[in-house]
Amino acid sequence: MGLVMADELLLAILLTSVPLILAATGELVAEKSGVLNLGVEGMMLMGAVAAFGVASLTGSPYLGILGGGLAGLLISLIFAVFVLGLATNQVATGLALTIFGTGLSGLIGAPLVGQSIDGLPSLIIPWISDIPMIGAFFRLDFLAYLAVVLVGLTAYVLNHTQFGLVLRAVGINHDSAHALGYPVLRVRFMAVLFGGFMAGLGGGYLPLVLTPHWAEGMTSGRGWIALALVVFASWRPWRVTAGAILFGGITIMQLVGQARGWAVPSQFLSMLPYFATIVVLVLISRGGRAQFGAPAHLGKNFLITR
Amino acid sequence: MTKAPRKLNPKSKDTPLLASYGMTKSFGDLVANQDINFSIYPGELHALLGENGAGKSTFIKMAYGLLQPDQGYLEWRGERITVTNPQQARAMGIGMVFQHFSLFEALTVAENIALALPPDFTRQKLSQMIKTKSAEYGIPLNPDSIIADLSVGQQQRVEIVRCLLQNPSLLIMDEPTSVLTPQETDQLFQVLKRLAKQGCAVLFISHKLDEIKQLTTRATILRGGIKVAEVKTKDQSTRQLAELMIGAKVKEIGTLSTPKSSKTLFSVSGLSRSAEGPFDIALKDISFSVKAGEILGIAGIAGNGQSELMAALTGEWRPASAAGVNKIMIGAADMTPLVPAARRRAGLAFIPEERNGHAAVPSMTLSENALLTGYDQADVVRRGIINHDNTLAMARHISKTFDVRQPSDDPLASSLSGGNLQKFVVGREIIKSPQVLIVSQPTWGVDIGATQFIRTAMANLAKQGSAVIMISQDLEEIFQIAHHIAVLNNGQLSETLKVDDVTPEHIGLLMGESPTRSGKARSGKARVSS
Lengths: 306, 530
Fold this sequence. Notes:
heterodimer, A: mainly alpha, globular, B: alpha/beta, 7-stranded mixed beta sheet
């Protein structure tokens, strides 16, 4: 009985962490190229409303995934045009993007409130899915598996390919990269769009899997947690994933705690996931060479000068 | 690299490897290059000489495909070409070693080199190539080292090996020796001469005239964007070269008289400081003293504790507890616990190394910058209210006395050229006639005219009876105006020697030799060349 309970909890934890894994991995790539996009929350909300809308209209949650990703990509395109094309301030533009995304998603989503969709089904793998504990990892849905693949792919491309090397180089020193003849703005453009696509997927996961309806502001700060994860995970994809699972874990544990009526104020329990995730990651990223993950030219605009 | 199209006799010694005809480039109203004709031949060691802002950088950037000329064209082995980007330049056989800004500090040696090569090699193959090539030229490198852990000299090896791996027929070196010890410079010249012997042309950009005479055979001299001369270097004295470069007679600073006073004005005893960050250098038991009327030069390569020492002297860093050691004194007054402002009031003046953002605020006007350290001067601030007229008058007085050429009456600091801004920040402190002046790299990246001006001003200040402590990488500077010299190496200061008693070679040895060195001298901070 206890084992089944633990099994269910583990599954819930994994599911809760998927949106963060997706959004934070996307943001990580954008930041590695030197672009700080504070619009993650806005992009996730756009992804969520688009995924829900598309799934609701077509009846296919798989098309919903695509809709969510594309919506995130399109709204990050606005950011890219401003920040890379017009060299606007990255912080201000990113904040504006979050406000814009929050408002627009609310507007688009107004007629969708109260509707319900069929979420993404779990893809059960016979036999393996029934193994206690380990089985929880094999009862996930398509998008969750995709998230794992995308994290692995991102880590591989960043660290083991010429393209990834160029992307990191652009984030470390765009003047040197330019002097070597690499297209700084084009690389950053692609990184920002990838970040938008991933944030859109992350947002889309909320209505497609976690709660099969749309509510305004349903990301409830996950975009900001994703941003913090990237920093405290020292810009490393697998560490981001671990941080996201930690966040998911504490989120679920505190829900269980509240349900069981632990003698702790519920406000404190609700705060716990955010607090604990940041504390743990701060401890991990102390000292040593962690600072090397930080792209030195993060947040700096590139202008071609003589 | 050998696909030179056959013309009449493309391999002949009479065909330049690279030639330019009527190259012109403007940025807005500024003509950076005007009608430049230039040529370099295979195996030639050629100098491109000029002050900051003379157009050297613009020219080589056009040759390397980073900029496109407005008019004029290039010929490569007698064939007219357009270089649209650096990849094309590299494919043709042009390699470039940049002055400061082209290595990625957080990446490894191998990764840095991979970025400049076509992606045809596996990491293992590349590592092997780096080891072989660097050993072949006597400048061994470990492909897995992270750039930030290497000394500046080692970083330059990375840049050179990166070029050598492309088998260049023309190597462009942009001010390569400004960060090297005399020994490292000799080693670099060995490599360059060997390359030239193998037929590779070297275009060497510098304003160090004795090096140009030592290394190159021909020099093209630019001034104000125009080519003013092309000379055989062995026919010219360094003085003649300098005059061609600045277009005026070079003034001698005049020999220094030994100060008569024996009063110690400033002393430091037992200054120690542990390394706080991973790239900090610990200071170990530093002691020295300076008498009135004396200039002490502190030599050493950047990253051996200069910034840590400077911060301790100015009071930006202070020891946690003032025990018997760690004493910084002006005369008999203990400065050790005082913050920078209090030290200024006691008669100290500081000129930090980085003029943009440390010595001056680029986005403020000159008068505002003057106010930042001159607020205790006559009538600029009264009861907390700024008197703008007096502040402006103070800034004008500094500009006039120190020959600061500025585009308008009270311009932003950022609108001044490096040399002029440096003259301003130096003038701002010297004009107060401080008892003790502490200055770091006073003429870094400054043209010859301004350099002479600044050195003269410091020498004059000492003549009036102030003590000057000058931290400088430039040995020539120290030998020119300092009375005493000490060398900072890996956080330790050598004994103070009389400048007259030592040779540059001796000092060079003190700078480079290091029984305790862990090979982890921090790289010099990236400087924005002006």
